[in-house]
Write a structure and sequence with these properties.
The protein has 399 residues and is of the alpha+beta class. The chain contains 10 helices and 20 strands. The protein has helices at 12-24, 62-81, 100-112, 123-129, 149-162, 205-212, 288-296, 298-319, 321-329, 384-396; strands at residues 2-8, 30-33, 50-51, 85-87, 90-94, 119-121, 137-141, 145-147, 166-168, 173-179, 182-187, 190-199, 219-231, 242-245, 257-260, 266-269, 273-274, 340-353, 363-366, 370-375. Strands 5, 6, 7, 13, 14, 15, 16, 17 and 18 form a 9-stranded mixed sheet that branches. Strands 1, 2, 9, 10, 11, 12, 19 and 20 form an 8-stranded mixed sheet that branches.
Length: 399
């Protein structure tokens, strides 16, 4: 059987793309290949569960456009499928006077992105939203929410199956070759034939891209682990909803923050440290070949040279609970080391080019036989239906 489209990767972006495709064209033969024994096991299942508003992203960028469009589509989908979600709002807090201009810049960016109601709030109002939080300035973003993205991804998968699409678990893609305008996709369980490959492989998207297009050699996925603590149940009252710091504008991470989870509990974190394995969720997990590949990448060497101080601080927090607590105390001084219990960790697939640029925007590349989603970190889960729609449009132009 020759499929019209084979999607590689059963995470939330791959599933959203498959769902959008099969909804638009139920006549197309579509298959999704996932190397794990269940869907959405990696970035999707290990993220913070935040429905992002579009505050942080440069107006006009793919992140801004897809986040805001995806936000509305996600909320509608959750309502239709009866997936629990909550629009909680969040505060972004400056803890030092030097951060105030950045806070104002964030507010202006948010308003430009259409976030009506986002505004500066007084320190008295901050206490109304988050009684235990302190700072020197704050903005309130009413659009932010929380959801369990694993539930969302599994719902996409159910829809695909109901509409006649195929989902194949335990199928790791090993090789892709082209012959007579057909892709031959060799997996750990057999070979698939497809007119078009769509690569949504997340942490391995660069490797799958090079299988289908050898010219894609200017981007490498660098895995960054984000480690979380959880607040002890008896201290969860310290956080009502979501509390974020002002992020470092030069670094594509949002800083340690507090998130009330839809599935229960309050998370504190994450930090951002280099993972020694692409799917390395623990400090002890090392893949020497993957680590050597990361360290040898010219772009990573430039990133390390530029951000070594920031990186050392993140690494120190990774090994020192006291240092992690100190970072959290900037937002909530009452937090004590004893309030924190070890939480989980996620690994972010961050694309890095040869020149040392950490790609700030979503990146999608087309070639004759494939479409490769090469950079889709946060807010990809919020944006999933919009990204999926964008990729589906690119696919449908070929059919």
């Amino acid at each position: 059987m020759i499929y019209d489209v084979v999607l590689v990767g059963g995470g939330i972006v791959g599933l959203a793309t498959g769902y959008k495709l099969i909804t638009a064209r139920p006549d197309l033969k579509i298959a999704i290949l996932e190397k794990e024994s269940q869907l959405a096991l990696h970035q999707t299942a290990n993220n913070s569960g935040v429905i992002h508003s579009g505050l942080y992203y440069k107006p006009g960028s793919l992140k801004a456009i897809n986040c805001i469009q995806g936000y509305h589509e996600l909320v509608t989908f959750c309502e239709q499928e009866k997936i629990p979600y909550e629009i909680t709002g969040k505060v972004v807090v400056a803890t030092r006077d030097s951060q105030k201009p950045l806070l104002t810049m964030l507010l202006e960016r948010g308003l430009e992105n259409g976030l009506t109601g986002t505004r500066h709030i007084s320190l008295e109002e901050l206490k109304e939203y988050e009684p235990y939080c302190t700072g020197v300035g704050a903005i309130h973003v009413p659009q932010t929410g929380i959801v369990d993205y694993l539930q969302v991804a599994l719902a996409y998968g159910r829809k695909i199956m109901q509409l006649g699409g195929g989902i194949f678990l335990n199928h790791k893609v090993l090789e892709i070759n082209q012959k007579d305008s057909i892709n031959y996709i060799e997996t750990s369980k057999g070979t698939f034939q497809a007119k078009l490959v769509v690569n949504c492989a997340g942490l391995y998207s660069d490797k799958v891209a090079r299988m289908n297009d050898a010219s894609i050699n200017d981007i490498k996925i660098i895995p960054f682990r984000g480690e979380y603590f959880k607040l002890k149940a008896e201290r969860e009252y310290l956080v009502k909803n979501l509390i974020y710091p002002v992020p470092d504008p030069n670094f594509p991470f949002l800083g340690v923050h507090f998130t009330r989870m839809k599935k229960g509990g309050v998370e504190a974190g994450p930090n951002a440290v280099l993972a020694f394995k692409r799917e390395g969720y623990k400090k002890t997990q090392v893949n020497f070949a993957e680590l050597a590949e990361t360290l040898a990448w010219p772009g990573f060497q430039k990133v390390a040279g530029k951000y070594w101080k920031t990186g050392l601080g993140e690494l120190y927090r990774s090994f020192s609970k006291a240092a992690f607590t100190k970072a959290l105390q900037e937002l909530i001084p009452e937090i004590q080391e004893s309030d924190l219990v070890e939480g989980g960790a996620g690994v972010r697939a961050q694309a890095c080019d040869r020149t040392g640029g950490l790609l700030d925007d979503f990146a999608i590349r087309e070639s004759e036989f494939a479409i490769n989603v090469l950079n889709a970190p946060s807010p990809a889960a919020t944006s999933s239906l919009s990204i999926g729609g964008t990729v589906a449009e690119m696919v449908l132009k070929r059919f």
